[in-house]
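Now read the record:
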Amino acid sequence: PAGESIIWVQLTEMADTNTCFLVLWGNPDATSAPPVYATNGAAWMESFRGVWHLGADENDSTSNRFAGVNQGSTDSTGIVGRCQLFDGNDYITLSGAPAVQGNASRTVSAWVRKSGTEEDCAVSLGTPANSQSFNLVFYGSRYAGVMGYGYDFYPGSGTSVEDGKWHHVVAVYVGGDRLRMYVDGRLDNTDTGKNNYQTAGQN
């Protein structure tokens, strides 16, 4: 009663700003097992290629079930629940998950907390070859951008994520034209003319 809870919920529709929902505690019939929709992918639309919370495991929360394989990262405390700590040489492979192909529109997002000065990569899609990759990176270690092996966007300014705090970082590519970078829900940078991504291969 005296504590604070951060809870994920699924709502089919919010009609207006006056809509509210109730959360009730104290149900003696409740069990410790998660509800079915927490593991069968029902909480995520079909357009989601994959969602990885990286808590107790590297499982994909969507119905696609593209499980990752940990390559050295360690368990740590996240912004909600647990997370994975990467020391610069660690990564998680998603060999079974096909990347968004060609020049199709895509959205890539991650919760990150950076405290070092390295130019890190949070998410890597495709093949490391000319125009065949789409990587969510931090240019100059501070600013969210995209490295695409020839079609790169390295902002020289914006919201710095190199402060040891949690940030939600999103790259949105509208196929054929515009790339948008969001940090903590706000548009941070925009670039145009990125019209030749030919993403190929896997994640």
Observations:
- The radius of gyration is 18 Å.
